[in-house]
Amino acid sequence: MRTPAAMTRRAAVLAVLCLLAIQPSVAQSPNTLSPDERAAGWTLLFDGTTTAGWRGFQKTAFPAGGWAVEDGTLKCLGQKGGDILTTATFTDFEFAWEWKLSPKGNTGVKYFVDERRGNATGAIGHEYQIIDDEGYDAEPLSAKQKTGGWYDVMPPKASAAKPIGQWNQSRILVRGTHVEHWLNGTLVAQYETSSAESAAGIASSKFKDVAGYADKIATPILLQDHSTVAWFRNLKIRSVPAR
C-alpha cells in the first residue's frame, strides 16, 4: 500500500508531466541560429537590430531613407529608398529567409547581380519573384510574374504563398549551374542556367538583350525596393559543394 506521502509525490510528478505535455514547444527566436544550424554552416545575414553587412545598390552605404529596422525585420517602406544588397558575395550557396507583404505588395530577391548592369531604378539579375498574386493591380500579371518563379523567365510550378500579411519561408539553392526556388516547403521552380529551356525563357523576356544575363556569377544577395511595403527576417546563408 502506498503511503500518503508517496501518493502526494506521485501526484506532483504527474501534475508536472501534464503541464509539460500541454505547453507549446518554444519557437526559435527570429534572426538567430540553432546549434544544429551553426554546425551545418549557416550564417546570419541580418542580426535583427542593425543594417551591418548591407548597403545600397551601386552605393557604399546603406540608404538614408526607404528602409528601416523594425521589430526584428528589415522593412522596405515603399518610399523609393532603392534596392539593398549584401556586402559579401556568394557562389554556391543555399539562402533561406522569411518575408511578408502588404496588400498589393511587390518585391523580390535577386542573385547573379552584376552592379555594372542596372541603374537608379533597380538592379538586373535573376529574380525570385515575390508579389501579391491576387491583389496586385498595377498591371495584369502573367504566369511568369507570379510568386516563386524566375521573374519574367520561368513561371512557378505551384501556388504556395500564404495569405497576404502572413509570414512565408523561402529558399534559393545555387549549386553549379543548377538553381532551385522553394516556397513554404514546395519546390516551385528549378532550372539549369545553361539549358535550352532557360535560353528560351530569356529570349522571350525583357532580359533578352542583356549581355551575360544567363551566366552564373559570384553574387551578393539583393532585396528589391519596388515602392511597396515588405518585410524580411531570418535571412541566413550557407555555402554548399559545387557539382
Write the layout of secondary structure elements.
Layout: H1 4-22, H2 35-39, E1 43-44, E2 54-56, E3 67-70, E4 73-77, E5 84-86, E6 93-101, E7 106-111, E8 126-131, E9 168-175, E10 178-183, E11 186-192, H3 196-203, E12 222-223, E13 229-239
Antiparallel strand pairs: 1-13, 2-5, 3-4, 4-13, 5-12, 6-9, 6-13, 7-8, 7-12, 9-10, 10-11
Structure in words:
This protein is α+β, with helices and mostly antiparallel strands and 243 residues long. The chain has one domain (28-239): Exo-inulinase, domain 1 (Jelly Rolls, Sandwich), CATH 2.60.120.560. 13% of the residues lie in helices and 30% in strands. It has 3 helices and 13 strands. The protein has helices spanning 4-22, 35-39, 196-203, and strands at 43-44, 54-56, 67-70, 73-77, 84-86, 93-101, 106-111, 126-131, 168-175, 178-183, 186-192, 222-223, 229-239. Strands 1, 3, 4, 6, 9, 10, 11 and 13 form an 8-stranded antiparallel β-sheet that branches. The longest helix has 19 residues, at 4-22. The radius of gyration is 22 Å and the shape is globular. Mean pLDDT is 91; it is low at 11-25.
